[in-house]
Design brief:
Structural class: mainly alpha
Keywords: Signal
Helix content: 25-40%
Organism: Candidatus Curtissbacteria bacterium GW2011_GWC1_44_33
Oligomer: single chain
Protein name: NodB homology domain-containing protein
Strand order of the largest sheet: 1-2
Main location: secreted
GO cellular component, one term: extracellular region
């Protein structure tokens, strides 16, 4: 399931970064108005609660959208993560950083 706002509020702020992952988990390779709604709504809700600072975004399904990258920059996001493997030029690719997808499995499968 998902965390409630109350559960998020009770979490230790220094131990977690609650970042934007869209409002309803939509693919960001879509129309501009949908990108703006999905990212903007989540951004507002997180900001109103003092979360997502620094501003970080994780693309749903790892699918990076060109307009979404531009919109994140307009909203003063610092970083965004996709799931494309490989090396990264941080300054030039800061809105398309790689991340490892951990699916529905036990953390022990990853050595934890």
């Amino acid at each position: 399931g998902y965390l409630s706002w109350e559960e998020i509020r009770q979490a230790t702020p220094s131990a977690y970064l609650f970042a934007n992952h869209t409002w309803s988990h939509k693919n960001m390779q879509t129309a501009k108005d949908k990108v703006e709604f999905e990212i903007g709504t989540a951004d507002t809700q997180l900001s109103e609660r003092g979360l997502n600072n620094p501003k970080v975004f994780a693309f749903t399904y790892g699918l990076v959208g060109d307009y979404a990258k531009k919109y994140l920059e307009e909203l003063e996001y610092k970083l965004a993560f996709g799931t494309r493997p490989g090396s990264t030029l941080c300054k030039k690719q800061r809105f398309e950083l790689p991340r490892v997808r951990v699916g529905d499995t036990k953390l022990s499968n990853y050595g934890f």
